[in-house]
Amino acid sequence: MSNSTQKSSCIVIAIAGASASGKSLIASTIYNELKAELGIDDIGIISEDAYYRDQSHLEMEERIKTNYDHPNSMDHELLVEHLQALKSGNAIEIPEYSYVEHTRLPTVRAFEPKRVIILEGILLLTDEKIRNEVDMSIFVDAPLDICFIRRLKRDMEERGRTMDSVISQYNKTVRPMFLQFIQPSKQYADIIVPRGGKNRVAINILKAQIRQLLGQK
Ligand SMILES: Nc1ncnc2c1ncn2[C@@H]1O[C@H](COP(=O)(O)OP(=O)(O)O)[C@@H](O)[C@H]1O
Ligand SMILES: Nc1ccn([C@@H]2O[C@H](COP(=O)(O)O)[C@@H](O)[C@H]2O)c(=O)n1
């Protein structure tokens, strides 16, 4: 539960888990189904990936070497600042990120305060400062081989990667950082969702819990 000292009517749900475990799919399913009940202005999704550190000052060959699965690659300070601003009723500007350029774009996404904010990202539960801002935390538990296959397909189709680069990054950083940081953060989840993004029973339970939390605010 949230340790935030600010009194807020906003509920923050964190969805963590391995890369390509189905976090975005669960987030967008809950978003699409609850927005029909709550209204489009009352629910929103924030991706942790938007908070990768800006690397526009680095050459491309340096950007490629970054370990994007280590907690230090994330500007969690800005994410916490943004969550606190939203809880205080202030709008924020979320950075826009390019997986092709490996840095932030010059553009931002304006985001108004909402009653329900769904956060999704690999490293969310590794950071106590983020955990303190969250009302309910979820860990999506999908087998790593399945995640790898999905990631290979997605990164080649959507993120401008070659098969060799996906395999090399997976062996050098993605898998080791999952084992070192992401998997142990499962202990902080309130709910563990097996089989990833198409677990209908789990999604129904999560929606019911969000409704209950809203009723308590
Ligand atoms: N349970 C599932 N069955 C089949 N495909 C899935 C499932 N969950 C996710 N996917 C697909 O796998 C890819 C990665 O899922 P995504 O939700 O984007 O992962 P994440 O946000 O955890 O990186 C997407 O193409 C998505 O549609
Ligand atoms: N420039 C970047 C930034 C991030 N990544 C990878 O993205 C993964 C997290 O995003 P998901 O949607 O898969 O959760 C993470 O595992 C990073 O390795 C990247 O490849 N390049």
From TrEMBL:
UniProt keyword Iron-sulfur present: no
Binding site for ATP: G17, A18, S19, A20, S21, G22, K23, S24
Subcellular location: Cytoplasm
Catalysis performed (reactions): cytidine + ATP = CMP + ADP + H(+); uridine + ATP = UMP + ADP + H(+)
Swiss-Prot/TrEMBL GO biological process terms: CTP salvage; UMP salvage
Record keyword Kinase present: yes
EC number: 2.7.1.48
InterPro entries assigned: P-loop_NTPase (IPR027417), PRK/URK (IPR006083), Uridine_kinase (IPR026008), Uridine_kinase-like (IPR000764)
Keyword field: ATP-binding, Cytoplasm, Kinase, Nucleotide-binding, Transferase
SUPFAM superfamilies in alphabetical order: P-loop containing nucleoside triphosphate hydrolases (SSF52540)
Annotated metabolic or biological route of this protein: Pyrimidine metabolism; UMP biosynthesis via salvage pathway; UMP from uridine: step 1/1; Pyrimidine metabolism; CTP biosynthesis via salvage pathway; CTP from cytidine: step 1/3
Phosphoribulokinase/uridine kinase domain span: 12-201
GO CC term, one of those recorded: cytoplasm
Annotated GO MF terms: ATP binding; cytidine kinase activity; uridine kinase activity
Family label: Belongs to the uridine kinase family.
PANTHER family, per database record: URIDINE KINASE
Designated name of the protein: Uridine kinase
Gene designation per UniProt: udk
